[in-house]
Request: fold
Amino acid sequence: MKNKTVLFLNALLVLAVMLAFTTTANAGGKVYKIGMSLAITGPTSDAGNPYAKGTEDYFKFVNDTKMLGDDTIDCTIRDDQYKTEVTKRNFEDYLDQGIVMYLNYSTGSTLGLKRDFEEEQIAVLPASYHSGNLIDSNYIFLPIVSYGEQLVILGEYVAKHHKGGKAKVALFVHPSAFGRGPVADVKKAIEAGLNLELVEVVEHGKDLDNTAMLKRLMSKNIQYVISQTVQSPVATMLKDSSRLGLSASSFGEAGKLTFLGAHYTGGNDLIALAGNAAENFFWTTSFNITSVPGEGTEKQLALAKKYGRDQKAAESHNYAAGIYVAQVVTETIKRAKEAGLEINKKNLYETLNKMNGTNAYQAYSAVGPVTYSKTDRTGVDMAQIYSVQTGVFKKVGEPIQSEYMK
Reply:
């Protein structure tokens, strides 16, 4: 009996020492809860997986380097497999955990939870750049220019550089709100004077062969196809066009098709899928990419190396996008702390709305400054056009803003 008593007392002593060490290690430090729900598996996981890794790694970096002093960020990341009902459950659970900001993913779930965000009065940064997210919403903040603005920027580039009359264009879009939404923006820009003729809008299916569609576009004298979808259907279209000898070898080549696309259509994964057929593909996003040397490239690759990511993740523009939202969250918390504010939903929302003018924030992952206000909830207002040249994406000019979307 005596031996059992001694063992019990020793166990209590060990537990007391462990608790004392934990208390000392976290002395004075606060933990700020963030929630993220996205498609790590399932549809669009080719984007969601590296996106999640970028967010996770940057928050680790924040904590490891004591960017917030003794305070830390605890971001719980869950896979919703692109299912809105799962996203909603994740969000509600995060609220119970006391999150102060929320990171969402898809267009469907962002639209579906819009009312919830309003009721909870919590700032939300989605991975969806659909301009419709902002309609009747006060708490959704687009990280970068909308899909619609990206397509208009590409349309403006076509109109400016096309030779001979009005350029004939087709839109190749995803059969969803994610794909359809930007079509209206393009049509409005044309009505306002953008010198393009929108001949056809194609909502792609799961076709493995686009031969009939491509020949139809050629029969209508279309020279430019601007895409708003994901990489796989674009890669299939590019390979079919190349096989048929229809792809332009230079921008706007007469009698051929020049292909362009918005954020989720491009990146290194497109080159991996399409191979040589991706050559001369024009693409726009607001993120720096690793095939273009610069501070953003160096820091992104260093972060990926620090946390053991493979080359595919490290060089993904979606890894950069994940880093970006974590940077914005961290900067918002940092500014609120410096102002002596309690870190809660209300104060972070107000702080984010003051990120403009001389208070703009430069995230190394983005091509332009991050600015938000109660009347401007698009973070980076600039986009960079890239094109595939000798197998890699290279810059085309400098970051630009849309004239017609203003």
User: Anything to note?
Assistant: Confidence is low (pLDDT under 50) at residues 1-9, 11-26. The first strand starts at residue 31 and ends at 38. The chain has two domains: 31-145+293-375, 147-285+385-400.
